[in-house]
């Protein structure tokens, strides 16, 4: 696969992305393979329309185009999708020239990439690469709106685990492309003690102690609905507090109470605080002004509409 950028002075990229960390190449390959199996049937599969109507020898160019303004993510899947389709059909890899990269803001009608090669490969790959890139770009676009709203406040927007099964890595990558921050990747890397854990363990303190004893290497976040619960969690040894569904005055009061305890009695010098629950874009700056470090927004991934992208053959 030839990946040719056209920006003066820009280096040749294995993936059209400035997002760090990038998507794992192995994850991309596995995800594209599963998506193609879903569309074509078990490998090598078939596209009964394209393969019946277009000769294998036919070549052409297709433009990947934005049909709406937004923020890009997911272009990194394009080359792998074309490569896998070409391999299934026994045809040469198309060449891809990218005119934009993941993380870029784009306008309606902007050409994002030019793809040249066997027309069968271009059309068979079309829906898979559009599904993945449109979904990721929708998440990036939604995230960018929050990042712009929070600019200058000192607070950052976080994602959650409310992701599409099988696409978590892509959607969290898209959050980064949109200017947001990833919270935890799953249940394995950060302990989050919520109300059901407290009920099962008997108390916040018991839950924190159990995690510390079993998994001493992980950070512990505790959910709190009130100022009293937040202070109890702080005393129990939480590293990070999730302040859930608090009205803004209560949130500000809780933040002040926690900040007043920082650096005393074994409490860290800075306790990370996250607001969550019923957050809307029009409240973002108000919530940030309460002094939290983060606003976590499940809607970034569970409710973002796609960014409309298209693949058009050039006459």
From TrEMBL:
Q: Which organism is it from?
A: Isoptericola luteus
Looking at the record, the residues that make up the Quinolinate phosphoribosyl transferase C-terminal domain are 139-312
Catalytic reaction list: nicotinate beta-D-ribonucleotide + CO2 + diphosphate = quinolinate + 5-phospho-alpha-D-ribose 1-diphosphate + 2 H(+)
Instruction: Name the NCBIfam families for this protein.
Output: nadC
Family classification: Belongs to the NadC/ModD family.
- State any single GO MF term: nicotinate-nucleotide diphosphorylase (carboxylating) activity
Q: In which pathway does it act?
A: Cofactor biosynthesis; NAD(+) biosynthesis; nicotinate D-ribonucleotide from quinolinate: step 1/1
Organism lineage string? Bacteria, Bacillati, Actinomycetota, Actinomycetes, Micrococcales
Task: Give the encoding gene's name.
Answer: nadC
Domain Quinolinate phosphoribosyl transferase N-terminal span(s) in chain numbering:
47-137
Q: What is this protein called?
A: nicotinate-nucleotide diphosphorylase (carboxylating)
Tell me, what does this protein do in biology? Involved in the catabolism of quinolinic acid (QA).
SUPFAM superfamilies xref list? Nicotinate/Quinolinate PRTase C-terminal domain-like, Nicotinate/Quinolinate PRTase N-terminal domain-like
Q: Which UniProt keywords apply?
A: Glycosyltransferase, Pyridine nucleotide biosynthesis, Transferase
């Amino acid at each position: 696969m030839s990946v040719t950028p056209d920006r003066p002075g820009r280096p040749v990229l294995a993936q059209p992305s400035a997002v760090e960390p990038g998507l794992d190449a192995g994850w991309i390959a596995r995800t594209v393979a599963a998506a193609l199996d879903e569309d074509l049937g078990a490998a090598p599969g078939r596209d009964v329309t394209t393969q019946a109507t277009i000769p294998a020898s036919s070549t052409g160019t297709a433009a990947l185009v934005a049909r709406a303004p937004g923020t890009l993510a997911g272009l990194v899947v394009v080359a792998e999708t074309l490569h896998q389709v070409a391999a299934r059909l026994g045809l040469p890899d198309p060449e891809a020239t990218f005119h934009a990269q993941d993380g870029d803001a784009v306008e309606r009608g902007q050409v994002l990439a030019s793809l040249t090669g066997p027309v069968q490969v271009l059309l068979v790959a079309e829906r898979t690469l559009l599904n993945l890139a449109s979904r990721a770009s929708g998440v990036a676009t939604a995230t960018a709106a929050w990042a712009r709203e929070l600019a200058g406040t000192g607070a950052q927007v976080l994602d959650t685990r409310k992701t599409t099964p099988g696409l978590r890595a892509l959607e969290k990558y898209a959050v980064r492309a949109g200017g947001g921050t990833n919270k935890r990747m799953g249940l394995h890397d950060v302990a989050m003690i919520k109300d059901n854990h407290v009920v099962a363990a008997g108390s916040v303190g018991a839950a924190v102690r159990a995690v510390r004893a079993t998994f001493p290497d992980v950070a512990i976040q505790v959910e709190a609905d009130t100022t009293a619960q937040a202070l109890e969690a702080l005393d129990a040894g939480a590293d990070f507090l999730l302040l859930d569904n608090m009205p803004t005055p209560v949130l500000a009061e809780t933040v002040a109470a926690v900040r007043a305890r920082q650096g005393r009695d074994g409490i860290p010098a800075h306790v990370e605080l996250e607001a969550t629950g019923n957050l809307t874009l029009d409240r973002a700056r108000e919530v940030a002004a309460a002094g939290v470090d983060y606003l976590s927004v499940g809607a970034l991934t569970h409710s973002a509409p796609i960014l409309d992208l298209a693949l058009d053959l050039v006459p």
